[in-house]
Predict the 3D structure of the following.
Amino acid sequence: MAPVLEVSGLSTVFHTRRGLVRAVQDVSFTVNAGETLAIVGESGCGKTITALSLMRLVPIPPGEITAGSVKVDGTDLLKLSDAEMRQMRGSKIAMIFQEPMTALNPLLTIGNQIEEMVLLHDKCSREVARKRAVEMLHHVRIPEPERRSREYPHQLSGGMRQRAMIAMALACRPKVLVADEPTTALDVTIQAQILDLIGDLQREFGTAVVLITHDLGVVAETAKRVVVMYAGRKVEEAPVEEIFGRPYHPYMQGLMNSIPRVGSARGLDVAPDERLQEISGIVPALNALPPGCSFEPRCSRADARCKTERPELATKAPDHIAACWNA
Amino acid sequence: MSSTTAAAQERPIEPSFLNNVGYLCRRYPLGVAGSIIMVAFVLCAIFANYVAPLDPFSTNAKASLAKPSDTHLLGADMMGRDVLSRIIHGARISLAVAMGATILGSGIGAAVGLACGYLGGWFDLLVQRVSEVMQSLPLLVMALVITASLGPSLRNTIIAIAIPLIPTVARVIRSNVLSLREMPFVEAAKATGMSEFRIAVVHVLPNTLAPLIVLATAQLGSTILTEASLSFLGLGVPEPYPSWGRMLSESAAEYVRTAPWLVIFPGLAISLVVFGSNLMGDALRDALDPRQRD
Amino acid sequence: MNQPLIEVTDLKKHFPIRKGLLRNVVGHVFAVDGVSFSINAGETLGLVGESGCGKSTVGRVVLRLIEPTSGAIKVEGKDIVGLPRGDLRPLRKRMQIVFQDPFSSLNPRIRVGDIVGEPLMVHGLANKQERAERVAQLFNRVGLRPGQMNNYPHQFSGGQRQRISIARALALDPQFIVADEPVSALDVSIQAQVINLMMDLQQELGLSYLFISHNLAVVEHISHRVAVMYLGRIVEYADKKALFASPQHPYTEALLSAVPLPDPSLRRTKKRVEGDVPSPIKPPPGCHFHPRCPYAEARCKVEPPVLREIGPGHQVACHLR
């Protein structure tokens, strides 16, 4: 099956007064229809800028996509004109954000906002668009969709707003859905509902999902493949069982060891009341990257080579790549 | 596959002073222009005695209504006084009154706003209603009433212009205080047992300074205009202080056609200063807006 | 048994809602609705719940940063509710707070050394020289370099700012610290650093924590006992092991079931709870959880359940257990 989304060598920079910020460097991955790829990393790793670059929503200037291609169903989005790209957004590729309150227009009813989306891409009447909007709200399991479609964002709870945003994003059945930390701002029980919803809709519509998150639990539950980013680069990629079973990159290993897990008191994995394994130090500034491996200052396995030579992604196991000299 | 050749350690660029100046010029050109105008006027005001070519007070019947020439670069008025020198000394008056009024009004306004934000209750309600009444009157009208009752003098002009400023400033400070009070660092100070008064002065007040400065700068233009208007009406700064407004009132009706320089140049001075302070105030507000950060 | 360091009994906080010109009270937000717990010296009580459950309010009320509507708060046996300001002040040295947001917890206009030394100044405990020494000592303890004392908050990272907040909380040698989501705003790898720091400090100094969080994994790691809150009430209260090994309340079950586990082999069928959290202004009658509870019966809609002991040290508020 041909991948629906093919990202190749994507690089995005920002020209700032404090130097060139290399937000994303040479990132490549592919996603098939009906699959979820998770991009994992902490703040400053470049995952959000990657997502914005896919949608060409990076502010230009000061940003600039300097290299690479983003192919959706064969069409390279980076080569399109602004008008052509606007056509693509919503119909072929859509995005949902972390904070639904700021992503939804507070002055329009949610029904209106979904209608707008439909009208932009499908030439149909307002009546039809309105029906589709209510249908979508029903699809995202908002009770009483007719009534709710006439409400404003502030009248809905956080979980409902997120559902409304999903409805808007999927209204025109895009091939790719980019979800940037869609559940981080939600309560745990609501998060579970939303993740279930995204999974169900994905199965129904065959959407490819790129899920950006820092939560390894969310990754484990929803993703098929995982890309780990650090300081703007991809440092590891593998199917989800592989990467949790045996992470190769020290950063991913460090991450997995540093999170407390529910159920530890039951004797799974980590012994209770033990210190969590820390990763010392902090993420490097993206305008002051070290010459060798970006993770070297914090790495327990680093040696002289790591200081001067940046490791490339290499195959460590079948379908499992990592960028580390000592993995 | 070989790794890329080792790149040198990148260093984040710390913008130098010159870089910062260059940045400001590129990003806020109008603001910089406004600041230059203001600085020029302030320098004129401070060094008026050295900058002015002639004595602004000395009359000279022979030079009465002289056209702009080498001796009188901007002409002379009906009493033979040099217009240029009067304008330069007038800057002193206008800016002194404006700044005096702004500082006085902002100072009292900030104190009132702080009190309202902190005390709340009936005090706050009362002050709010009084402020609303005051703000419903135009600045000029209020200033007029005050000088008319107090009598025209330099001191009274400053007071008359300061008072209408108080409600505006108080309102802005009050809303800042209300939101600052909820900040965790204020709660933390409370948790250590700090008295409310101390918290207000040490924690809350310094954080209201930025909006206060912006507000004050924005008001500068209108205070200058008000002073000019009051003086024009004969209720502001009296003789012998040279005030741009009075220069206009003395000449506007009678001499506007025969000696237009008597009207044009003071008017230009007023416009330029107000223009400059507005540009500067706008740019300052934009620059201090946290959302505009790099 | 020794008397607990902190003992809270039937604590309530109802915020009045005022509308209209004369600011009439038209309703209440039942933020905290009858909460009781105790914390021993050197112990951590984890307070867990989702948004709107009132856990943050509990933290603030216990320190009397917000005045309680009713209830008792005993610090070393002495009830501090109703204590006049002057008497409360010295007691404040015993109890401090650390907040969630590393960015707004520190006054941006004050140097961090002064921020940490301020509590000492407030209580007149040290002169300038002694203060500087003490601040340096505190900086070292929380893993910061004393040389950074003259910097401003914005020059530090989020994790470092949390350390500064912790240093400030330690300045007065407190016995009890309310930690309101202290690591939620931090990156995962930094969370581990701060959690370890807090646990080390607890060991070294015998501190007690009221650890408020929505993150069950962190709570499980750091707490000795755990209380689960829902809409202003505690629904389950037990030793950590007991609560996580065999949760009794349907809400606790739902919470644990909803937490995503970082282990793909454990993709299990979940007990999903439907619906949203109701508003604390109009909480459902009877058991607050009944509209979302898969086991709700007629009784649950009418009669609010009381916290009852169903096992050693394990209390649950549910009619069906």
In short: The radius of gyration of chain B is 24 Å. The CA atoms of residues 90 and 242 of chain B lie 5 Å apart. Chain B touches chain C at residues 183-185, 187-194, 198, 202-203, 206-207 (CB under 8 Å). The longest helix of chain B spans residues 83-119.
